[in-house]
Predict the 3D structure of the following.
Amino acid sequence: MKIAVWSDFVCPFCYIGKRHLEAAIKDRTDVEIEFHSYELDPTAPEKVDGKMEVYFAEHKGMSVEQAHSMIQQVTQMANNVDLAYNYDAIQHGNTLKPHRLFQFAKEQGKGNEFMELAKKAYFIEGKWLNDDDFLVHLATSVGLEENRVRDILTSEAYLDAVRLDQAQAAEIGIQGVPFFVIDGQYGLSGAQPIEIFEQVLADIDAKKI
């Protein structure tokens, strides 16, 4: 069974949804997860200065107090799946460059590992995902060749692969992430509870009997 997941590194619900899905399939050996690129905000600058409360308030049309409350809520959701989000340390920015590098990692069979480590770096470790030296460190830590990684970062390599994922998302009608396509039959949007994933998987299994 194949599960396709459209995701962005800076999407808080994508990381939470990833954990929910992993919990739902933890006892299965017949499930393959394939991640796809999606940019939540292609217009974001390379680096956003200032606190995330202010950024959210400006870009989501809410007060700083409302943004702070939203961050507290999503942090609690993350804590419930043992993810220690640290919004005070987050360095936000455009994600096209890390997505291009993810596509290379995916080509080399390391895409899932790269996706996990990049999310952890952003949400928990406060790393800036447009820092070339950090991206080299991240990529080489999953076994990618350093010189090739540096060549990718200083070019537009794998841009077509990112755009293909985004085109597929548009064709399916995806307007936000995370978005899960399970066995080519079911589409689920958002960080669905573990029980929802388990029910969908059970429905698919029942049809195969």
